[in-house]
Amino acid sequence: AFRATLEEISEADLILHLVDVTHPNARQQIRAVEETLAELNIHDVPTLLAFNKIDALTPEMKAEVEVRLGDLLPQGSVLSALTGAGVGALLERIERMLYADMVALRVVIPYTQGHLISLFHEQGYVERTEHLEEGVKMEGRVPQRIAGRFSAYALKSQRRMRAATAASSTLKLLP
Question: Do residues 140 and 102 make contact, with C-beta atoms less than 8 angstroms apart?
Answer without folding.
Answer: no
